[in-house]
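Async update (no meeting this week)

Hi team, since we skipped the sync, here's where things stand on the single-chain job. The sequence we agreed to prioritize is pasted below, unchanged from the tracker. I ran it this morning and attached the output directly underneath so nobody has to dig for it. Comments welcome in thread, and please keep replies under the output.
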Amino acid sequence: MAMQEIFIPIQNDQIQADLYGDFHDLTKSTIIMAHGLGGEKQCGLTEFAKFYEEMEFNVCVFDHRGFGQSTGKVKHLVDKHSQLQDWNAVIEYLNQQFQITKQQIILWGYSFSGAHALTLASNDHFKGVIANFPHTDGLASLTLYPKKYLLPATAIAIQDLVLASFGKIKTMPVVAKDRFAILAGKDCYDGYWSIVPKEKQWDNAVPARIVATIGLYRPTTVAHKIQSDTLVMGAAKDSLIPISATRKMAKKIKSSQYIELQCGHFDLFHEPHKSQILECHTLFLKHLR
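Output:
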């Protein structure tokens, strides 16, 4: 079936989402997908959505508020609380419009949205969770941030938090050649731009306040509460997320499969690792049926 564009109301804004499949067929499970920090669904998620649709799953892929065509009071705001609200709004919409229950939903996240999928699953029972190279422990991730930039970045983040009370923002680049950015791994600049379509104008900037709050986002502390079948994909060469933290978190999930690949954080979208990852996803999804 043709992809359908929809808008989901949330407070005074709208979340733009793409639907793949037949959502009136209640025999099918539904995969909900969203991108990582600063990302939009056009940056690599469409091919994954089409792949799952061919596997006879329904797929809903959306952009968080402030990204893509989704509206938002603060453009490109990266905030765990508001983005978790976005996920819950999508889940509620699918239930109201198509009678899709949480037990029919598979949460799919990558990087920062992987943290959202894990956090949501710690509070409710879903059919399954696929967490690709997920943000697992903000404190652990801060140990990989360039030490010479940590204080200057924190100072800018505090400025942004102060300005927020006046309705203003102070941004930082998502990635930068000199690594003074939100994502400061050695491979992040080339890696991130490699997933941005050439025809797309991607705004490489987000409010800096995320630097001051990301260390407190630690899904590893609630992973033991997850009851859903969960597939955790780890990247051994991840420059943003310590692989030791990913391994530790995965062990806490009661019903989990952990698969580790010798790849980097952005190799989810590139061959040969993309095919290997999709093969792992395929086996996991078949197991859920």
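Quick observations from my side:
The mean pLDDT is 97.
The longest strand covers residues 13-20.
Reply here if anything looks off.
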